[in-house]
Design brief:
single chain; 349 residues; alpha/beta; FAD/NAD(P)-binding domain; 7-stranded mixed beta sheet; 6-stranded mixed beta sheet; 11 helices; 25% strand; globular
């Protein structure tokens, strides 16, 4: 039996632990938090992520506690719609529910070690870095040049216990800021992003909420109404970080998955989805082939795709958070919306 150490017990790490064959592998998960998070916003599950959830065995449970995202619009800051967006069969699951279901899917044979990992664990046949954007595994093996890069933006997110207004669903693009409104099982999910000097770490949620309300005071009524109901207890704030591309997600018997491999801005709503696909793809290759072949196949399958998505997400962030070019952007999108009413171009992140 091969030994596998998974550093990180978040979405990617738990999905991998749940999918690996317990008859073939002796798996240990290292997680710094003693318990699962109790605050979390909604994550959009694209079809390829839903297939990964089905492989893990929790898709029906996820659908059972998740609203269908449905339709929405890309709008200007006042709420005037530019482009209609159809969410299709996408569902939005809260991070709390997703982690709870993934954790329950992990076999009892998997070992659990709680505590912060500062370097790559020794003694395992394979080490998997699933420890997020500030991955100690990535920094230790790929070097300091691979460390996370800070963006000038923060993400403020939350849930309010008020039913979502269907006519308000979508993203609102202002001058250097964006705001999103979507359905949640317990009410309304919202998120905001803009340039801020708070942080970079340990940002006080109440302070961030005050700054956010001030930032969006001149925006549309739908945004102001959501923020009026927001509370620190049901909100999160964090600096947005990304990771630079690397030539391979594999070095020797160390491999990266999820944000440790390809942390991207949240503008495409793909970070959690790609983490799930990473985990299931790696597990399936390991379950079916010798380790060296499995790792090489995983790297070929996932690296170029995820790095392309990371670039696309950054490009969309620059468009959505445009400042100097915002009037031209609004003019072009407004014209597109008038020429193509009701066009479906994607899905609300």
């Amino acid at each position: 039996m091969n030994t596998i150490s998974i550093v990180g017990g978040g979405i990617a790490g738990l999905a991998l632990a749940a999918r690996l064959d317990p008859e073939r592998f002796d798996v240990t998960v290292y997680e710094k938090r003693p318990e699962l998070t109790t605050v979390g916003t909604v994550l959009a599950m694209w079809p390829h992520a839903q297939r990964a959830l089905e492989a893990v065995g929790i898709l029906d449970a996820v659908r059972g506690c998740s609203p269908v995202i449905g339709s929405g619009a890309i709008r200007d800051a006042a709420g005037v719609p530019w482009i209609e967006v159809d969410g299709g069969e996408m569902v939005g699951v809260s991070r709390m529910d997703l982690l709870r279901l993934l954790d329950a899917a992990v076999p009892d044979t998997v070992g659990r070690i709680t505590g912060r990992v500062h370097a790559v664990p020794s003694g395992a046949d394979l080490v998997v870095g699933a420890d997020g954007v500030h991955s100690a595994v990535r920094r230790d093996i790929w070097g300091e040049k691979s460390s996370a890069r800070r963006t000038p933006y923060i993400a403020v997110r939350g849930i309010i216990p008020v039913p979502v207004q269907p006519g308000h669903v979508g993203e609102y693009w202002g001058r250097g800021d964006l705001f999103g409104i979507a359905a949640a099982a317990s009410g309304t999910n919202w998120y905001a992003s803009y340039r801020s000097d708070l942080g970079p770490a340990g940002i006080d949620v109440a302070t961030a909420l005050r700054q956010t309300r001030s930032r969006y005071a001149g925006h549309g009524l739908a945004i102001r109404d959501v923020l009026a109901h927001a509370t620190p207890e049901l909100s999160l704030v964090q600096r947005i970080w990304t990771t630079p591309p690397v030539r391979s997600y594999v070095r020797g018997r160390v491999v990266l998955i999820g944000d440790a491999a390809h942390a991207m801005t949240p503008n495409l709503g793909r970070g959690a989805c790609e983490a799930l696909v990473d985990a299931v793809t790696l597990a399936d290759f390991l379950n079916a082939a010798p380790p060296d072949q499995a790792l090489a196949a995983y790297d070929r399958r996932r690296r170029l795709r995820t790095q392309s998505l990371s670039l696309a997400s950054s490009a969309l962030m620059r468009l959505a958070l445009a400042e100097g070019a915002q009037p031209l952007r609004d003019l072009l999108l407004g014209l597109k919306g008038r020429r193509q009413p009701g066009a479906a171009v994607g899905s609300v992140p």
